[in-house]
What does this fold into?
Amino acid sequence: MDPFTGNFTQQEPIPDAAIEAALEVMRSGRLHRYNTGPGESSPVAELEAAYAAYQGSRFCLACASGGAAMTLALRAHGVGAGDKVLTNAFTLAPVPGAIAAVGAEAVLVEITEDLVIDLEDLAGKITSSGARTLLLSNMRGHLCDMNALTELLDQHGVTLIEDCAHTMGARWNGRKSGSFGLAGCFSTQTYKHINSGEGGLLTSDDPEFMARAILLSGSYMLYERHGAAPEPHVFEGLRLDMPNMSSRMDNLRAAILLPQLAQLEENIERWNARYDLIAERLAVCPALRVPVRPAAEYYVGSSIQFQLIGAAPEQMEAYLSAVAALGVDLKWFGRAEPVAFTSTHKSWRYVPTQNLPRTDVVLASLLDMRLPLTFSLDDCAHLADILVHCAEVTRLPGAA
It folds into this structure.
């Protein structure tokens, strides 16, 4: 088996139009979002208007990061010290980090073997915790049954805030991820679906919520310079009460993002072609299980997850060593210690220790692989062949 020589962290170049837009901002020297003259609109305001239109939301706020978007959303919703916030047990550290940042306590909810929040466990923990907010993580691009989820939350009076860092452009029954609750939180960090290094977007249809978020982000009294904000009168009763959290996006990042947004739908199709090719090839190996994707889900396959069915820890290590020797970079969510971006609930000491046996069983055998668009379809076929080959040579349970 020939080794794979691609780079799992190499993204596509920033488009020429975005580079030229960035140069124009730098030549102007006006990088701050509010550094505009009379009648001028900033690149950040233009991005907010464009993303609100893309998402189908009334309002959009451009933020410093996806984590900042979640923190602003929680605080704008009124979550504070001592409150309990429900969230998936399987997520990345910025999600419980946002809950900790507002002084609240994360209540972790089990996941299913298809990597989405377990609605039965959620129902029980709504009752037992008394929490009235769910920060739902669409972790690694997987959407739960959003209709069933919102029905459950409505029954219990729980507000939904969606973390859509991995689901920008995804849909459930044609409805965009991020539009099912009070707010959607998106990331434009390098490994997400549009790339400004760091950055975030917050969307909502609720005018008072968004006015609070804009003020919290550090608008001072310049909120009228936003591209997709509520009417000025909505801010009047709020503008002196909201603290400034300095979480704004700058014009340079917004300029880079605008041309990429125009290419997003095309890129989603390219990601999904890569994902589907690998998923189909892994499906022939009984030792490997790819999560089931419901027919209602239109996903963004910028990464792929699979489990080594029934593998013990030493078999996981052997498999990881075998694929690494052939140039494949996998992340194992079941490791005892966090590595780079990969961690589990057991590593988050700012979250109370919680018993999550079903999640732990899933994570124990769960592997993750990025699918940058710098990989061709031939590259993806090669990767799938390596993953299946290593299952066989390491004699995983069920492998040929």
Q: What stands out?
A: The longest helix spans residues 251-282.
